[in-house]
Amino acid sequence: MGLCGICLRLVVLVEMLLLMAANAAPTPPQLAQVPPDCPTICGDLQIVYPFGTKDGCYLNKAFLITCNHTHYNPPKPFLRESTIVVTNITLEEGRMQVESLVSKDCYLKNGTMTDDSIYTYFSINQFTISHTKNKFTVIGCESYGRIKGKIGRKNYSEGCISECKNKDDVTDGDCSGSGCCQIDIPKGLQEIKVRSSSFNNHSKVWQFNPCTYAFVIEESQFRFRSSNLSNTTARVPTAIDWSITGQGNCDKAKNNASYACKSNSSCYQPPANNNADGYLCKCDDGYHGNPYLPNGCQGVSLGFVMLLVGSSLFFFMFKKRRLIKLKEKFFQQNGGFLLQQQLSKRTGASDTAKIFSEEELKKATNNFDEKRIIGRGGYGTVYKGFLTDNNPVAIKKSKIVDQSQIEQFINEVTVLSQINHRNVVKLLGCCLETEVPLLVYEYVTNGTLFDHIHNKDEKPTIPWETRLRIAAETAGVLSYLHSSAATPIIHRDVKSTNILLDDDVTAKVSDFGASKLVPIDEAQLSTMVQGTLGYLDPEYLHTSQLTEKSDVYSFGVVVVELMTRKKVLSFDRPEEERSLVMYFLSWLNAGCLFEILENGIVNDDNREQIREVGELARRCLRVKGEERPTMKEVAMELEGLRRMHKHQWDNVEVNIEETEHLLSETSYTCNNGDGTTSVAANDSMKDHLLMAFDIAR
Ligand SMILES: *[C@@H]1O[C@H](CO)[C@@H](O)[C@H](O)[C@H]1NC(C)=O
Ligand SMILES: *[C@@H]1O[C@H](CO)[C@@H](O)[C@H](O)[C@H]1NC(C)=O
Ligand SMILES: *[C@@H]1O[C@H](CO)[C@@H](O)[C@H](O)[C@H]1NC(C)=O
Ligand SMILES: *[C@@H]1O[C@H](CO)[C@@H](O)[C@H](O)[C@H]1NC(C)=O
Ligand SMILES: *[C@@H]1O[C@H](CO)[C@@H](O)[C@H](O)[C@H]1NC(C)=O
Ligand SMILES: *[C@@H]1O[C@H](CO)[C@@H](O)[C@H](O)[C@H]1NC(C)=O
Ligand SMILES: *[C@@H]1O[C@H](CO)[C@@H](O)[C@H](O)[C@H]1NC(C)=O
Ligand SMILES: *[C@@H]1O[C@H](CO)[C@@H](O)[C@H](O)[C@H]1NC(C)=O
Ligand SMILES: *[C@@H]1O[C@H](CO)[C@@H](O)[C@H](O)[C@H]1NC(C)=O
Ligand SMILES: *[C@@H]1O[C@H](CO)[C@@H](O)[C@H](O)[C@H]1NC(C)=O
Ligand SMILES: *[C@@H]1O[C@H](CO)[C@@H](O)[C@H](O)[C@H]1NC(C)=O
User: Fold this and answer.
1) Which stretches make up the Protein kinase domain (predicted)?
2) What is the CATH code for 334-442?
3) Distance in Å, CA 233 to ligand 6 centroid
4) CA of 248, closest atom in ligand 8
């Protein structure tokens, strides 16, 4: 009894400490100091200051990361304005990882060089190619590779030779010249040219080695295999040393107004870099965080120290196994407990959500096989899985263990547990055993609305009636969220990728991770601006005041997308047309709606209906939230348009002539003869445009 009592108390103490740590640790101290609208993530890359994606977010142009959203999904981070893809940035030791191209020299069986042979050029001005982490590597059996570059003003040129007679001569992991050779690279290279060549056009070894490959690769990421002789990847990871340049060494830089090391941090010369120009910063002893940000280095908290003491004590007393058990229990008491509560509260109890075991979901997704990934959100990955009864489900899993993401998940469950609507994707259950909860949804078969409208090779486009139904269904859900649900809910991320379609092309709204429950007595909430570029309400962006009208705006954008089948932001279009909203409104104001719709969508039956929908979209897109209609009005109007349509047009044939007359008149004003229009952007439109580019930059 006595011993048990002590143990119990200890357990409680440790739980409290863990709780404190859980509350303190995941808040990265640097978040407070970078401007709040600086993206910290691009695709899989975590971006930390001094790096940043737009003005005001990076230290100087050398640290610019260009995040290309328009051509890549997930978006891709490039170094500055180059084509070099960045895969990892770390503050410690000033290191980053990029992808570099492999040079190759390939031959056909008869000895002719193929035309996909390449030599590569790689330049990383101001930073250097790490000489401690990388090796110049050549793969091949009749092969030599050359690397050339400059160190200061001196030319540098090196190479290595790799030979073998047959595949059995080579040893995995051995790069000493048989099938693979490696050499060190010198300090201070910023620019290299790599060329691979063959002594004898690979004629004798062609069967297993038709090419010579040469590249600079991060040594720890590479182990030579005999299979590399016949096939090597097109890109390899290369380590880069970065530092703050242009201010001399530490001694000089300390006196420069642009000195980058902030309070409680100090300057040091990177060991890998005896370059007089260039330095790094690190937090002083007892501090941790980001030394490049004001107040980025913070003292190690008391809670943390106590946690260390507490948990080592704990380890001492109990076996590791018990700690893991406790963690599980602990998790349940935090997120898990809340989740369970939320789930048990679900009304319409016929289909209560289920608690799945981790084992079950691992099996369902083939151990979270990459091939099963059907989508990636800002904070999670969605897998397709099959339960034991062979029913398909969608399983959402957080990418990294991070308190804020767990909150988003719990938020989603909280929100979904209050919704019961045929046009909302159904939550089937969740799994609480893992560190991050996994959510299980019904599997919606036909993908996202985005895929349907922007997939160019999909021949049969969705007919107008279906688009109108999708719009009406989506509006219905949003109206329901805003008004009929027990506590009003603002979705906050309405966009075509969050509208799923099932096999009879019924819309199902998904992704409530960012949604907000609005207490009934508060008409608006002050929040951190969150949403998706191109769909974001400009008023919300300026004021941070979240209201239901933000969803109305985003919905308006989706309607325009449905009508025009164009992307909401496209850098392929001329500058004034990059923002779809801007583009749409200017043409609409000029009376040229029909010129920007998808070809072939308008016919005599639906012309008036389309015009009305265009007007409705215009009202949804008003810059002032209060001038926009409510979602309920929008939903009713769309339903009305759908229902009245047939009936109306049976009776109004006389009007058609008039409409056509009107049309020809407006198209006359639209056409300036040189492909331009006579429309000038008015102030309210400029707002949309500015907004789009403020963030895009
Ligand atoms: C994104 O990448 C594509 C293809 O590489 C390129 O054409 C486009 O200009 C890039 N966009 C931006 C904003 O860099
Ligand atoms: C980035 O690099 C650091 C240091 O090498 C490593 O610890 C970390 O796991 C890497 N992150 C990713 C996402 O690869
Ligand atoms: C080798 O084969 C390619 C295509 O198979 C052909 O175009 C080329 O002329 C041939 N070269 C010689 C030297 O036979
Ligand atoms: C390939 O190399 C062999 C030996 O050097 C030579 O005889 C032959 O002409 C070469 N073939 C071509 C297409 O260059
Ligand atoms: C360095 O190489 C370039 C060509 O790559 C050459 O023009 C130049 O003369 C060389 N400089 C020295 C000092 O050898
Ligand atoms: C090379 O390997 C990749 C994956 O490792 C594979 O997708 C590709 O088909 C291979 N190419 C050849 C020519 O074997
Ligand atoms: C070498 O081969 C291994 C095993 O097939 C593969 O995983 C690796 O990506 C290859 N390396 C390169 C640089 O292609
Ligand atoms: C101080 O830093 C700025 C910006 O990095 C640089 O342009 C300037 O030359 C530096 N001044 C001195 C005296 O080094
Ligand atoms: C840490 O920085 C703060 C704010 O600049 C300063 O007041 C404090 O003295 C610093 N602590 C140490 C140990 O330098
Ligand atoms: C929706 O999915 C079903 C079943 O996968 C398929 O038969 C149908 O053609 C799809 N419809 C559309 C519009 O893609
Ligand atoms: C300016 O745009 C708004 C809506 O975007 C429209 O209501 C107004 O008529 C336009 N004004 C002019 C002068 O075109």
Assistant:
1) 368-650
2) 3.30.200.20
3) 8
4) 14
